[in-house]
Amino acid sequence: MPGSFSIAANASSFFTEIGALSHFAGRFFKELFSRPFEFREFLRQCYQMGNKSLVLVAITGFILGLVFTLQSRPTLMEFGAVSWMPSMISISIVREIGPVIIALICAGRIGSSIGAELGSMKVTEQIDAMEVSGTNPFKFLVVTRIFAATLMLPILILIGDFVALVGSALVENVKGDVSFLLYFNQVFEALEFSDLLPATVKSFFFGFAIGLVGCFKGYNSNKGTAGVGKAANSAVVFTSLLLFVIDFIAVFVSDVIYG
Amino acid sequence: MDDLSNNRATSGRTEVISIKGLYKSFGENVVLDDFNMNIYEDENLVLMGKSGSGKSVLIKCVIGLMQPDKGKIEVLGKDITKLGQQEMDELRAEIGFLFQGSALYDSMTVRENLEFPLRRHRNKMNGNRTKDLVMEALENVGLAHTLDLMPAELSGGMQRRVALARALILKPKIIFYDEPTTGLDPITAKEIILLMLDVQKKYNTSSLIITHDVDCARVIANRIILLYEKTNYAEGTFTELSTSPDPKVKAFFK
Question: Mind naming one GO cellular-component term on file for this protein (chain A) (predicted)?
């Protein structure tokens, strides 16, 4: 039956892709700890990813905080629990919504950019030119990007979380006449180390996934301009899916650890 | 332009590249089968063949970007199939490569593009020496004023010149040109061909040039090899091949 053949072929292609991705990740760890270290390129990537995503992350975080607070307010008022707003918003944003939404935004911004950049470098033989120049292109292009994404994502997520709380505080200040100082006092009273640690650890994995998939898709893109577009697009789609899988595993593990 | 394809004796000269019995396939598709070729010191060897006949695959096997399935490739006396990564990198410093589409790094300025191979191969070189070499290489191709421009700000011909400057910056003994005049207008193509001749005179390099451009082959080739039916089908000077009675050979020079 053609339908079942198609499902089998898709499943086979999916698992082949997962195998190739795992092999790619293995090569990353092998190259990460071997000399020479491309420190200059790593710093350039940190700047590219961090600085250039900052405004996007800040705007997303701010709107997230505003909308989330505006939407939750009527329900909490109905139960006479508006005073719980800072605790509820801070825990939800820091633990779950902030990391996931900002990681998804970064998958679009950083993942697609890496996929398109490496894809076009491959098509225009820049990767071959690099190898001919005596440079290991995997180390120079892939290791630096994955490592930079892994380190920058937690920072971007922390900034995004903070801006989201500022947005939320603004709504409470305007609608509920709650001062910023009081709002943030309640936020820090509600937050515990066990809220922050799993979210931060999860953020490193999110960054690793974004860098890994973007590099994998770009580095292995097929020749031609269509291949570049496909690399950028599939980097975002595959990373987004992977982010939810990582999130599920992270929530499950932290639930086991912290009860 | 002068016809430089006069007979130059090749016997008794030092081989810089020697390829014997090269075989390369991609799955069922055999690209090269029992291909043999030598390049001698100070020689410009042109490799001609139909599109998709395996010319670029051959050049990538010689530079170590692809592994041949069978056969022996010696570059400057070293069997490249037996070299480790570090030895291969050291050997590559002796080879310049002008890619078909120039392959300049988009995210770097012209200066950074030229500094890139220097930093890789001559780590301990001081900043002033690097600057001097970059300027010298750019002056040689007449583009000293483009130092701080991005590749996207240059025309196709200028990009090809900058790529040539990058290929020359380590003063290589051998240069590979992959379709150096493709996509250029006739005037710019002629400028690039003259530049290649200048380079050969100035640096005493041996060159392997892949081209479809008969004018380019006529001007630059000391010897031409035709890659046809997966192997070296015919070999000779431009005059010998262009007057060949074999219709398959003649077809390339029409």
Answer: ATP-binding cassette (ABC) transporter complex
Give pLDDT, residue B122: 63
Per-domain residue ranges of chain B: 40-51+84-253
Per the CB < 8 Å rule, is A124 touching B63?
no
Spell out which residues of chain A touch residue B85, defining contact as CB-CB under 8 Å. 136
Q: With beta carbons under 8 A apart, name residues in chain A contacting B97.
A: 129, 132
Q: Flag whether residue A134 sits within 8 Å of chain B, measured between CB atoms.
A: yes
Residue B125: predicted pLDDT: 63
Type of residue numbered B21: G
CB contact under 8 A, A134 and B117: yes
pLDDT tens figures, B8-47: 444 567 889 999 999 999 988 898 998 999 999 889 999 9
Q: Where are the alpha helices (DSSP H) in B6-105?
A: 55-62, 85-92
Q: Which of A132, A144, A222 to mutate to test the interface with B (most CBs of B within 10 A)?
A: A132
- A221 touches A227 (CB < 8 A): yes
Confidence at residue B189, expressed as pLDDT on a 0 to 100 scale: 86
**Any idea which residue has 């200066």 for tokens?**
B111
CATH 3.40.50.720 for the B40-51+84-253 domain, yes or no: no
Cβ distance B92 to A120 less than 8 Å, yes or no, reads no
Helix axes A2-32 and A193-219, enclosed angle (nearest 10): 110
Answer with the residue of higher pLDDT: B218 or A226: B218
Compute the average pLDDT of residues A135-148. 93
pLDDT at B121: 73
Could you say which residues from 187 to 206 on chain B have a Cβ atom under 8 Å away from some Cβ of chain A?
none
| pTM for this entry | 0.85
Among candidates A236, A33, A241, which has minimal Cα distance to A147? A33
Q: Which amino acid is residue B154, in one-letter code? A: L
**Optimal mutation site among A38, A133, A135, A145, interface B, most CBs of chain B within 10 A:** A133
User: pLDDT by residue (tens digit) across B158-203?
Assistant: 999 999 999 988 888 999 999 888 888 888 888 888 888 888 888 8
Is there a contact between A102 and A63 (Cβ–Cβ < 8 Å)? no
The pLDDT score that the predictor gives to residue B7 is 39
In the block, which residue shows the tokens 């001007």?
B219
Using a CB-CB cut-off of 8 Å, the residues of chain B touching A131 are 65
To the nearest whole Å, the CA of B169 is away from the closest chain A CA by 11
B132: its two tokens: 């001097």
DSSP letter at B36 equals E
Q: Is B60 on the interface with A (CB under 8 A)?
A: yes
